[in-house]
Write a structure and sequence with these properties.
Length: 364
């Protein structure tokens, strides 16, 4: 098959689940060497995943360091005398030929639920247009599929597949306290099972204040925040004494994050909505108990293993932390987490995605 990728996601964000997904899918297809791969590439040096991806020079159709807003939303112009799969990393279409077989991956409907009106309208116009013009639609969870039916129902002639995200093999239990890992923890004055871990964006619906409220209910723990540095607005809301117990880490690799998962008392994920929630599986795969909210895909992905709560309430989360002090209970949660995490892999995700390409290619 000829497959064309639009790497626009690397130009839109510095990190995150979507660029991680795109990185893993691209890497898999390059390693398979079964298809003719071509890329509209946007080699933005601020994207963590793009910086770790090597693309063959001959496979790049065009490249740019920066795109304007209009260039990001306008269709790509491309001509071909043979049919090909076109998969955009973030809701972009292609024009100039009738031979494309468009594939769209729908990650979530966060904008439909949480964005301000104008931003939601602009985003959904682009997103829904991409969905409606595609031959095949991939949803990364059953919950995202339900949202697709709610907000942008597919047409009868469109194929839809539910293909779950994966998790990197770089997350695993550390069975021995190796010197390098001890030194890493000591550098940040982190002791085993003496810190909580928060990973990802701190957008409003992520409910990051619950993590700090939970920290405030403890006296012997720190909070490690993996993500961007605090903004001035965030710093103004944080108590200075509490801030002394918070460690922020930016742009860390999987190996470092695996160490953090391994030695955390718990992973705190108080999000009100997720299309999938990759960090949940990362934590479970590394043997870290998860405390989260009982909603959206979180319920589906956690598989009844995480400690889930119906309300954003620090007291409830604190009770969960206290339950984890029971060594037998904690070990049971960890062992069941290993089993749940084993249901997801990037290998499985990528194999199913390529099969979906082939299915659409053969029937169009």
């Amino acid at each position: 098959m000829k497959i064309i990728f639009d790497n626009i996601v690397y130009n839109k964000a510095s990190n995150g689940g979507v660029s991680n997904y795109w990185f893993e899918l691209t890497k898999y297809l390059l390693e398979q060497q079964k298809d003719e791969l071509l890329f509209f590439d946007y080699n933005n040096q601020r994207n963590f995943h793009r910086n770790n991806l090597e693309l063959p020079t001959e496979s790049i159709i065009t490249t740019s360091e920066k795109l304007s807003f209009l260039e990001r939303i306008y269709p790509i112009s491309f001509k071909s005398d043979e049919k090909f799969i076109f998969h955009s990393s973030y809701y972009r279409s292609i024009s100039g030929t009738k031979n494309e077989i468009g594939i769209t991956t729908v990650h979530d409907f966060t904008h439909s639920y949480y964005s301000p009106f104008v931003k939601k309208v602009l985003h959904n116009k682009i997103k829904y247009g991409s969905i409606k013009s595609s031959k095949g639609i991939i949803c990364i969870s059953n919950n995202t599929y339900k949202d697709l039916l709610k907000f942008c129902p597919p047409k009868k002639d469109q194929k839809v597949a539910i293909i779950h995200n994966g998790v990197s093999d770089e997350y695993f239990p550390i069975v021995e306290n190796r010197t390098s890992e001890k030194e890493f923890l000591q550098r940040f004055q982190l002791e085993e099972q003496k810190y909580l871990l928060y990973v990802g964006s701190r957008a409003n619906y992520k409910n990051f204040p619950l993590a700090t409220a939970l920290l405030n209910k403890t006296t012997d723990m720190k909070l490690v925040v993996v993500g961007g540095n605090f903004t001035k607005a965030e710093l103004q809301t944080l108590d200075q004494n509490l801030l002394k117990r918070i460690v922020v880490m930016t742009d860390i690799d999987n190996a470092t994050l695996n160490v953090l998962y391994n030695f955390a008392n718990a992973f705190i994920y108080p999000s009100s909505y997720e299309g999938f929630g990759i960090p949940i599986i990362e934590a479970m795969k590394a043997g870290c108990p998860v405390l989260s909210l009982n909603n959206s895909s979180i319920t589906e992905v956690s598989g009844g293993v995480a400690l889930l709560y119906d309300q954003i309430n620090a007291d409830d989360f604190k009770k969960g932390l206290d339950r984890l002090n029971d060594k037998s209970y904690r070990q049971d949660i960890i062992e069941r987490g290993y089993i749940q995490a084993g249901k997801f892999s990037w290998q499985k995700c990528c194999e199913e995605t390529r099969s979906f390409y082939q299915e659409n290619y053969d029937t169009n």
